[in-house]
Amino acid sequence: MTTVPLTILYFAWLRERTGLAEEKVSPPETVRTIADLIIWLTARSPGHAAALAHMKTIRCAVNQDFAAPDTSLKPGDEVAFFPPVTGG
Amino acid sequence: MTQVRVQIEDFDIGAEFAALTAGRTDIGGIGCFVGTVRAAAGGKPIAAMTLEHYPAMTQRALERIAAEAERRWSLLGCTVIHRHGRLCLGENIVLVLAASAHRQPALDATGFLIDWLKTQAPFWKREEFSDGTTTWVEARASDDEAASRWGGAPA
């Protein structure tokens, strides 16, 4: 996990709060799941903390498929965080 | 034929209708839903809205929803077009067409497609109000209920 970074994408108000649409991160090996990643990302900046504060109100996708907090991560994954969708 | 498109430009409902039915004589009914930009949100007048999406995921999510509709009903074709970008009042947002030999599958599949799309396709609306403020539209529990009435486990 430490050598190949994850690509993290943020959409809608998560993008506005983090100030980032995309970032590459290399979390430590203890970060194994989406839930671990959220906790780790929260410590990166006050913006990250504001964006990711309410785990229940954010949704996640790994490699463009909806994912749950217990979804495992592997090197090179594209992880997207976003609010519940509001299209249509 | 299944047609799924995500685009900035408007769509021509008549042209899409013609494309869906061209050369077909087996179709007996076509359901149609068009979502448009409404002038008020929660009593507050809006000026426009911007639809953001997740390009790498959107097309696939819509194709999956269309495939699920085709699995559940005997469709003779369906069309799903969703716009993104900035849209003004009255503009088209989304088009769903579903064709079948009979009306019930066509109507049911149309309802299913728009209900699942609203809870499964990665789009987010940001409303611009007349006073210059903006807000991200919040997902509504009623949309989840509408999607859940079709059963099955979305995504």
Short description:
The complex is a heterodimer of chains A (88) and B (155). Chain A is an alpha+beta fold.
Any overview of this molecule?
By secondary structure, chain A is of the alpha+beta class. Helix content of chain A is 25%, strand content 24%. In chain A, strands 2-1-5-3-4 form a five-stranded mixed beta sheet. In chain A, a hairpin with a 2-residue loop joins strand 3 (59-62) and strand 4. Helices cover 34% and strands 37% of the residues of chain B. Chain B contains four helices and nine strands, in the order E-H-E-E-E-H-E-E-E-H-E-E-H. In chain B, the strands form two sheets. In chain B, strands 3, 4, 6, 8 and 9 form a five-stranded antiparallel beta sheet that branches. In chain B, strands 1-5-7-2 form a four-stranded mixed beta sheet, sandwiched between helices. Chain B starts with a strand and ends in a 7-residue tail after the last helix. The A-B interface holds A 9, 11-13, 61, 64-66, 78, 80, 82-88 and B 35, 51-54, 56-57, 60-61, 82, 93-94, 114, 117-126, 136-139, 143, 155.
Number of helices, where a helix is a run of at least 4 consecutive DSSP H or I residues of chain A: 3
Q: Can you give the mean pLDDT of chain A? A: 94
- Classify the helix fraction of chain B into a percent range: 25-40%
Helix share of residues of chain A?
25-40%
Mean pLDDT of chain B, to the nearest integer, reads 94
- Find the count of extended strands of chain B (DSSP E, 2+ residues): 9
Proportion of beta-strand residues of chain B: 35-45%
What is the chain-wise order of helices and strands of chain A? Answer: EHEHHEEE
Largest interface: A-B, 17 and 29 residues
